[in-house]
Amino acid sequence: MLFCVSAGTWMSHTVYAQDKAAFVYLGPTSDHGWSYSHDQGRIKAEKILAGKFKTSYIENVPETADAERVIRNLAQQGNKVIFGTSFGYMNAMEKVARQFPNTVFMHATGYKQAKNLGVYELRTYEGAYLLGVLAGQKTKTNIIGVVASFPIPEVVRNINAYTLGAQSVNPKVSTKVIWANTWFNPGKERDAAMALIAQKADVLMQNTDSPAVVQAAQQKGVYAFGWNSDMSKFGPKAHLAAAVLHWEKIYEPVMKQVQNKTWKSTAYKYGVKQNAVNIEDFGVAVSTAEKNKALAVRDSLKTGAIHPFSGPLYKQDGSLIIAKGKTLTDVELSKMNYYVRGVDGSLPK
What we know:
globular; 6-stranded mixed β-sheet; 8-stranded mixed β-sheet
């Protein structure tokens, strides 16, 4: 049976499989953002594996003691591998992994590893950079905006990459940021989008999960992007493109390794090169030339000809981050706690 849990509601349909895998989501699978993209990856991976695994998920699991309880219950139910899809699950997964040494645990966007605990993430900043390339071509005010969630390195990287991508085609661009302090709250996301539009930002990116930003852009006659998935149906005139995440590129091989008993703790960092991050679903407002420019940059990212964080790079205050000919390492990217030149305002502490 395939069980899906949401707010106490159970649904099921019969699936014949050999092993079980479980997924824990921070938000609802209907958010059309982060949790939705993970669930699409789960569905695609299960299909690729052609019945060798049955998968289940639990959504709306807060990053509190509830997460530890949920993850422990899933281990007790005999799941061979459990995927925790939010950074805030890290300590809970580490604790439960010690209690269930024969179960594989995979934690998204974290850094703690153990013999049966691995980590994985997608280079979302590559998608943000590509959206920036399009934003830099489309803006008329030279002001672009970001609706941000929380000031953690992952989100700061995406803001900076978006800015750098836009500046690569339009050096006059500056970026304004509104912090919504939520991953998923359509009302707060909409308010943040409206505040950015009031400050003359005419191309909006988000690092939040609902389509509220695209809907606000549609209402106000400006542009926006899908984040994690295609959001064009929520604002067909506003939606320029989407930075789409393909988590199945990690989920399918991990489940296969677990089943074949070849899995070893590792840190997956997949991006454009592995077709796990892509710019897709271009909108009606995008010209052929604008689309081709974005795709050309994507192809250069794929081959390694360019990197979003290659020097010379400067902080907001003008100080040098890295010299020409050098590129920030994954370790340096994981600690990013500053804005690059061109981002307005101060980074919350």
